[in-house]
Please model this.
Amino acid sequence: MVHWPLVYGVAAAVYAGHQVQAVPIEDDKSDVSAEVVIMNDGFPGIGTYLSRKSHPTEVSSPISSAVTNPIQAAVPGLYESAPAQPAVIGRRRLEGTKSHDMMKLEKFFGLDLETDITILPTRCQLDPIPWPGSYWPTYADSINYRWNKNQPSPAEKYANAFGHDATALMDKISSMNGVDKHTHRKRCSHKRDCEALKDSSECGKRYGKKTGHCIPNWFGLCHAWAPAAILEPEPRCVVEHNGTRFEPYDIKALITMAYHGSKIPTIFTGSRFNGNDKTSNITDEYGRFTDERRRDISPGFFHIAATNIMGRFNSSFVIDHTAGNEVWNQPVRGYEIVRLAWTTPDAAAKRYFKVDKYPFNDAATKIAVVTTRLYWVVESGENGPLCSTGRVDKFTTKVDYDYILETDETYQILGGEWLSGSKANHIDFIWIPASKPAPTTVTAFGMVYSEIEQLVSESIRPDCKSPPAKNSSAVDHQSQGEAPGASTASSGSAANGPTPGASSNNSTSSSESDDLPGSASDDSPESASGESSRPAPAGNTTQPAPAPAGTPAASAGNTTETVPAGTPVTSAGNTTRTVPAVPAGTPAASAGNTTGTQPAKVVAAPIGTPPAS
Model:
C-alpha cells in the first residue's frame, strides 16, 4: 500500500460559510475538525451505538520523537492522540472556498481535488478489489463464533497456535466486543424473546450457554473489516501453524479483529447520524430531512469525493451506506455515472421541487441531473479466495443515487440536492483508513498484529493451495443453521435463505427505494439500467446526454483523443477526450496491499454519456 504524504501542520479551521439570505440549505455537518481521527471506541464509524458522551480521538499536535505511539511507525510524522474537544460545526458551502472535509482529502492525498464536472472521470473500477468477509456480529460473540461446524473458533485457533491462553482471550473478546459486553441488556433464550424490543435484536449467547442477551444484529466489526479488506491482501490458502489449521475465513476473522484493536489513523468526512430514525424523519417542504446529520452527506461532496478518490487517485474508501442510525461500513470498489443531463436552476426548481425559483443557491447558473451507480463489497459467509476467483462479483452490491449538482459558468461544482428515493437513502459518511496497523501493535485483548500478519503472508504464497470449494466452510455450516456475519444481499451467497446479522439494506437493486429512477414520479430522473454486479468495463456504446449550449463536452463519436489537463474541448465534433487526472507516475494510494507509483486507473467517456451497462 502506497501511503500518500501526509502534510500535517496546524489543523485547518472548520470553514463556516456566510449564510446566504433566502437559501435554506445547510451543507454537511462535520463530526471532527482534525485531519486525522483514531479508530477506537469513540470513532464515529464504529459498528455499534455511539455514546453521546464520547468524542473522537483526534490527532492534534506534533508528535515528539520521545513519544511512543503505536501508529507512529506506520505513519511517520503523525500527531499524538489527544481527547478531542467537541468539533466546531459550521455551514460548509462548496462555493467560494473548499469545505473542511475537502481540505482533509487534499492533505491526505497531497493533490488538489478537481471540481470541474466536465473533467472528472465518469467511471472507475478498482484493482485490487476489497475482499468480502464477515462483520463478526456481536450477538454471535464476535470471532469466538465457531463458524466451521465443530472446529474451534478463529479466536481459539489463534490462541492455541501462538501460545496464548484461549479461555482468557475469548473472555476478553466477549467482554469487549461480544455477548458479555451487553449483559445489561434483556435476557433471552430465543430470538422471540427479543421481538418486543423492535430494534433488530437477536438472542446472543456464548458458546455452550442456553441463555443470553438481546443484542441488535447490526452491532459488529464492519468498521474493522472494511479497512482490512482495503489495506490487506485477501487470505487465499489454508495455513498450518504449530499444528493448528487456519482456513482463509479464520485468517480474515483474525485480521479484522486486529484492526478493531489497533487504533489505526483515519480520514473521516461527513457526520454520523446517531439519533432516532422515527423521531428524526421530519422533512421540509422540499422533502429533505430537517435534521442536518440525517441529511448529509451532500451530493456535491459525494460526487467530488467519489470521482476524485477513485477516478483520479485510484483508491478505495469506506462508506456507511445507510442514512439512519444503524451503521453498515462497506468498502467501495467502483462507480459509474449512468446519467448526466443539463437543465437550468429554475427548470430544476419546477420539476423537482414544485416551485418557480430555485431556492437553494443563488450562485448556481447550471444544474446537472445525475445518477451515479456505486458498487461496494458486502459481507460473505464463504470460505476460500473470492477476489482472485471472481466470486467477489457475487458479493458486490450496486445502488443508484439520484441528485442534482449546482455549477457555476465554468462548471465548478458548488453543491447539490438529493432526488427521489435518494433523499432518504443515501450515504451517511465517508472515511479512508490512513495506514495499516504498526508492526508492533498488540491489542487491548492480547492479539499480536505481527503474528496475524505472518498468517496472512503464508496464506498468499504463490505455491500455496486454496481450500476446496466445499471444504468445511461456512457454506456447509450455513446449510445446517445460521452463519452470522454474512450478507443476504448477493445472489450466489453461501447463505441458504436469510442470514442473521446481515444488513437488510445491502440490496443488489439499482435503487434504494420503491421510487425508482425513471418511474412515474416527477421527482425521479430517468436512469440507465444494468444488471451486472461489477462496474462496467471500458467502452462508449450509448449517446451522450443533452448538454446546455457551450458545454465543453464531446458529441456522440466513439474515437478518443488524449489532451493535457485543462485543455478546452469544444462541444462540436466527433471526438471524445481523456483528461489525465494526475501526472504520469504520481504516487497513488492503492486499493490493496501494493507498492510503487502508478497512474490513476481511469476510463473516460464523453461527458454526459451513460456508460454501457
Notes: The chain has two domains: 1-137+218-613, 138-164+179-217. Residues 420 and 524 are 5 Å apart (CA to CA).
